[in-house]
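Reopening this one. Same input as before:
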Amino acid sequence: MRRDRLDAARTAMRWLAGLALVLASGALSPAFAHGIAGKDAAFVAASTGPQIVPFMYLGAKHMVTGYDHLLFILGVVFFLYDFRHVALYVTMFSIGHSLTLLAGVLTNIHVNAYLVDALIGLSVVYKAFDNLGGFKTVFGFQPNTKLAVLGFGLVHGFGLATKLQDLRLARDGLVANLVSFNVGVELGQLLALSVILAVVVWWRKQPGFSRQAMAANALILFAGFLLMEYQLAGFFTDGKVAA
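Same output, byte for byte:
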């Protein structure tokens, strides 16, 4: 029985490691990017008037396919054992990205998409580094984690806003569609969070979790650096022209 549990823990470790690498490598291919493209982009560009359900669907789809958002959420909840803490941190993140998503589109605040997505990659690096105890070990202090999650939530919201701004949404029904998209994002986040928590909670009960958790967060850290590198490369090659 103990060997079976050990094999199950190793399987979970390999699954999470593969997930981190696949999500990160997805950033290197536009086909896996979490922006709105193809038929979805064409629908949004042609939409006029309130389109509540379709925009809710697009918001949820955007979140559950957003590898950078998923990696950050994974890092945030990785070592949260109290579900009240999970609710608090996820709520702060949601408040942050909702504010900048709505403000960014409604007030037409433009931020270079490559730089915003590079900062989102940095958020993944930050949380994994924090989970590894890097701040206390290297710098001798611990940043306020709640404020960091809120701050990076603001950054993630701008990331969502840049994707919508690129589609030049019609003003007719804009507020209703934008709110619907944001509601969809929250629903998608709840769905993704449920799956992530189910896996992590189960994994914590397996032998060797502490050692495996450090390796997993090292992989998440590496994935965050890949996301940053890709976006910064895009900024220095053509992002400045588009800014």
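So the earlier flakiness isn't reproducible anymore. For the record, Residues 2-242 form one domain.
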